Amino acid sequence: MASILSIQGLCSGYRNQQVLTDIDLEIEEGSVTALIGPNGHGKSTLLKTLSGLIPTWKGDTQFLGKALGNNAPDRARAGLILVPQGDQLFGGMTVEENLMMGTFARKDRDAVQDSLETVFTLFPRLKERRGQRAESLSGGERRMVGIGRGMMANGKMMMIDEPSLGLAPLIIEQIYEALGHLANQDRSILVVEENPSRVANVASAFHLMDGGRIAWSGNTNDLANSSDLLKTYLGG
């Protein structure tokens, strides 16, 4: 399969603190790829750098065969969509208004309603709460809105940062069921997840980050046969 995202020698960080060092990564079009590893080792920083929220210090990133623009709006318009950790919703706006915020760069306005219905099909709870203010939602509901807003952008690739962080097991199951549905539609997804077992049934490629570098890469079978390596990095 062709690469939708190609990263070579990427370095990045915050002010004078380097976090990412020589990241090389190929993401296949239509695949679900998981970034796994312990907290504080650069997974979220990589997504922020790819989305344009943090500047690239060095290296080359190609999206759909073209160099990306230098800021977040340019990259979103190119179709690279970030669902950030914590979701960052507009608390005073309703669920539906928050979802519609994801459509700012879309030109196919006639298809927006279809996208909204798809989100409501995957997350029925959001349809029930479409007129409710986001600030009154539970943590799981907020996470659903964040993912749904990313879907509403109808981009070429969606990057999701820690979709299960701090959520109850039942909510985690619902969210990963939705991601599995997107995977079956050949959506291109890059997901950050500390616990590889949660994403093992959805992702086809895995990259373990340690100290701001890619320490290991493999497919689903490789993951199943790498228990000792994962125990070393993740403690289980």
Automatic annotation (TrEMBL):
Gene3D superfamilies: P-loop containing nucleotide triphosphate hydrolases. SUPFAM superfamilies: P-loop containing nucleoside triphosphate hydrolases. Residues 5-236 form the ABC transporter domain. GO terms for biological process: L-amino acid transport. Keywords: Amino-acid transport, ATP-binding, Nucleotide-binding, Transport. Pfam families: ABC_tran. GO terms for molecular function: ATP binding; ATP hydrolysis activity; branched-chain amino acid transmembrane transporter activity. InterPro entries: ABC_transporter-like_ATP-bd, ABC_transporter-like_CS, BCAA_Transport_ATP-bd_LivF, P-loop_NTPase. Belongs to the ABC transporter superfamily. This is Amino acid/amide ABC transporter ATP-binding protein 2, HAAT family. It comes from Epibacterium ulvae. The lineage of its organism: Bacteria, Pseudomonadati, Pseudomonadota, Alphaproteobacteria, Rhodobacterales.
